[in-house]
Amino acid sequence: LIIANDPLASAGLATLLANQRSCSLVGQIAGESDSGAALEVYAPDVVVWDLGWEPALEPLVDLRDTEIPIVALLPDEVHAAEAWAAGVRALLLRDVSAERLVAAVQAVYQELVVFDSALAPSLPPSQDPESPLPIEELSPRELEVLQLLAEGLPNKAMAHRLNISEHTIK
Description:
Blueprint: E1 2-4, H1 7-18, E2 28-29, H2 35-42, E3 47-50, H3 58-62, E4 70-74, H4 80-85, E5 90-93, H5 98-109, E6 114-115, H6 140-150, H7 155-162, H8 166-169
Parallel strand pairs: 1-2, 1-3, 3-4, 4-5, 5-6
């Protein structure tokens, strides 16, 4: 589902995402529409929300409790922290490339979070006092496996590349 007040931005995003094999566009609405009702009607897996040049973040806060991940497009870093606090799963600049936007949509669908590196300094540091520190450092071999995992290789390919069994990779 695409949400945008700018009809040109909405049409551009729709055209861009409609041409992707991995995406299926279910609808487009204006940002000032009742987004909660639209989520019920369209039942999207992911929302791409173009917040425009002067972002109004209140509608994002209203959707914070939904399970649907939101990819927010911002004009600059000024409102990044507020948008992040509103519960979006991805923060990108409005001038994002088509490839990065599609990758972000796919990532949030897989329950990952995404943000443009230019926006990182504007985001507050994580303050999770409950998260334990690592007990021990990863071994060089574990780091190799982690690197291959980050490259997106399946277990079988990682096992083949490292010359070990798939069971060991798991």
